[in-house]
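ugh ok fine here u go
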Amino acid sequence: MGLEYYLSLISIFGNIETVAMSWRDVRQFGQSRIDEGTTMDARPEHSGTTLNLAALRQTPGFLVRIVQIQIFDAFYRHFKELGLTPAQHTILMVVRDNPAITQSELAGVLQIQLPNLLRLLAKFEEDGFLRRTRSKRDRRAVELRLTARGAELARESTRLADEFNERTLSPLRPGDRARFMHMLVQLAEPHPVASSAR
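structure:
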């Protein structure tokens, strides 16, 4: 699956307002450098003090968070013509690739509360991109399918996503891109977090 799939999942897990505030807090320290062998430091506003962020440069969660927020900023600009959010793009891709997926199955895959997902699905249905029907397998379940209009939106979203992925990975050397994606997939797979021995 493409980079946009894994990164857009993050948008569903987190709170967008919290993410935006976190990024503003980070950006006020100026342009941080995270190059190998370079001290990661920054200068807060209204202060001549240089902060040493070398420890954070060794923290995967912090670095992933910064990359995530940078990608969010770029995503909204790149997808402006379609007006899609990362969450909406993700739903389009999953429903397109898994016709007749149920609402509950989609919520489970995306790890999102069903009521929150239903609001997104209702908007898609209202706009004519999605159709919800009772499942013949289980009358309690509701299956999801894209309409013809939704399939066209998915094609346009995929086109933009391909361009966006290429641009996102462009700072890496061509040979490093596949390795980076492989490592991302490894981290995205469910696995127990190792606890340190006490």
